[in-house]
Amino acid sequence: KNEVEQSPQNLTAQEGEFITINCSYSVGISALHWLQQHPGGGIVSLFMLSSGKKKHGRLIATINIQEKHSSLHITASHPRDSAVYICAAGGSQGNLIFGKGTKLSVKP
Amino acid sequence: DGGITQSPKYLFRKEGQNVTLSCEQNLNHDAMYWYRQDPGQGLRLIYYSQIVNDFQKGDIAEGYSVSREKKESFPLTVTSAQKNPTAFYLCASSMDTQRGAFFGQGTRLTVV
After folding, report:
1. Which three-class secondary structure state does DSSP give residue A16?
2. For A21-47, what is each residue's pLDDT tens digit?
3. A41 reaches B (C-beta below 8 A)
4. Cβ–Cβ of A2/B42 closer than 8 Å?
5. In degrees rounded to 5, what are phi and psi of residue A80?
6. Can you tell me the distance from the alpha carbon of A101 to that of B35, in angstroms, rounded to the nearest whole number?
7. Residue A104 contacts residue A85 (beta carbons within 8 Å)
8. To the nearest 10°, the Cα dihedral for A47, A52, A55, A61?
9. B41 touches chain A (CB under 8 A)
10. Tens-digit pLDDT profile for residues B34-64
11. How far is B96 from B20, CA to CA, in rounded Å?
12. CB-CB contact of A52 with A60 (8 Å)
């Protein structure tokens, strides 16, 4: 069993839809990261959170430490949101344990 | 602008040759990391360094070597001992475990 599990693996949505990507982890963490990877491969850090909820524009990330679960929400999705979204558990050495990613495709 | 630079973006090498991937950061970060990404798999940690002149093996260090002679630089050498070197390699850095990580744009290595 992977230490960081994401669901779904693939997600197709219509523009404007509300999107949720889930992440469960089985390891102790210093923080939980949400990352975005575009087709070229470069990765951008979206959120780092250790409790509660964070919001940036149309993106919202939540975490439940007791349940070891985090969600990434995208409101009013747009085709430019199409990317792979990756959940990663932050270890004590600063290294990250990555989920396999969720490939999101938003259709116009 | 501060950031992490990986070069080159695409690299082709013949089987049996060693190849070195560059990673440079001007963020004054102490910690640097190398990850490998294969299709359908999450990124996996190869090596990391928390301070100059010190580095630690990650989960898949076999067939790789690194050095950290300067704070800004953390080159990764893919040696001929690495059985499946073709992959996407990503470098990252962070100030400490309480802050977010910054990522380079990656190097896609193809060994033929």
Report:
1. coil
2. 999 998 778 789 999 998 877 888 899
3. yes
4. yes
5. -70, -10
6. 15
7. yes
8. 60
9. yes
10. 999 998 888 999 999 999 999 999 999 999 9
11. 26
12. no
